[in-house]
Amino acid sequence: MVVEVLSRVRHDWEVAYTFFLWAGKRPDYAPSLREYHSMISILAKMRKFDTAWALIDEMRGGRAGPCLVTPQTLLIMIRRYCAMHDVGRAINTFYAYKKFKFDVGIEEFHSLLSALCRYKNVQDAEHLMFCNKGVFPLNTKSFNIILNGWCNAIRSPREAERVWREMSKRGVSHDVVSYASIMSCYSKGSNLNKVLKLFSQMKSMRIEPDRKVYNAVIHALAKARHVKEVINLLKVMEENGIGPNVVTYNSLIKPLCKARKVDEARQLFDEMLQKGLSPTTQTYHAFFRILRNGEDAFELLKKMRKLGCQPTNDTYIMLIRKFSRWCQFDNVFKLWNEMIEKGVGTDRSSYIVLIHGLFLNGRLDDAYKYYMEMKEKQFLPEPKIDQMLQDWVSGKQYADRVMADLKNNQLLDKKLNNQIRVQSKKHDQEKDFLKQPETRRVVRERGFSFQEQ
User: Fold this and answer.
1) Residues 277, 296: Cα–Cα separation, whole Å
2) pLDDT for residue 109
3) What are the start-end ranges of the H helices in 278-382?
4) What are 108-122's pLDDT values in tens digits?
5) What is the pTM of this model?
6) In total, how many domains does the chain have?
7) CA 89, 93, 98 angle in degrees (round to 5)?
8) Are residues 358 and 393 in the same domain?
């Protein structure tokens, strides 16, 4: 139950940590390894590394209790440091394995390289691999991790080709994983010729293609709209005992949707269901990208849930961006509230997309409201939007001051005008009085003259 609650509030580290501490104080409960790992992952994701390390020290158990810290515990910290591009601390955490008396072998080193490459620190990972070649000898797996980083994390065919040549230069053999990585890179770049050339090269070297290789070739053929060749290759896969999986179908559905061949994509979707394969969020995302109205989007969202695939944060971000582009802000806020109600949670990326959409469409007050909410949750704002909103607030404050000054000036002018008007009226009355003819009679009495009262 604790893990489930932590999963629901994972985007609000304060709530999660308060609940974790409360649960830990109960006499009938002691946190398990899985629960510690969930809490450490939440804290590290929100950059609360000191608190995460305090939990790790607690896991050590002191003199009396058992030590719950495992290599996986430290690997969580390594991955979060890599996600923040703090390579130095990630490497220091790797060296902390010895402090906890864990064995540090080639597998642990490969885990470090994989974490670095996964979060696009590929250049640092490659440098680290060559610097430690005396301790951890270069082999095919080490190079494959770096190659896959350049191919799929960075998507740089030039760097991938350089690593490929470096492997040959150092006498490190290419295996099926190497071919799958570089063929996937060329496939995403729509370079069908190089994909087919490498596929033929594999056959000549008697390296049996695996499902990933077939998926890369199928994706490249589908993007080039070679439908017949795709069908033939699917038959070859099945003859070789490699049945198509969800990734295979996704490799077909994505380019078909992009090419606006929606009917063919839907046929493949139905075929997936008939074969008992469950569509993933990536499958639905391909269809979401080509929708042109809100009704279809919510209908597909409903169907997605009905078939057991729950929308992720990326799903909501895609739809919020789409509805913002259509200026349908009722649907934007509907999705935003749904994210909170369904427990998906609003993270930094979702706030940035929402604020960006509101700001660009002139909803500046709403944008600023969510911007302040984002800062309260201690999410780091996107620099460009941050600067634009700060400029807008400064401009608004200046405009308010100008308007206040104008209003005060208008009040002063009105008061002065009233005073001038009163004085002018009085002066006019006095002036008029001098011009008026004498209307009172002169009364003579006893030798004197008087004006009649």
Assistant:
1) 23
2) 97
3) 281-288, 294-306, 313-325, 329-341, 348-360, 364-376
4) 999 999 999 999 999
5) 0.79
6) 3
7) 150
8) yes
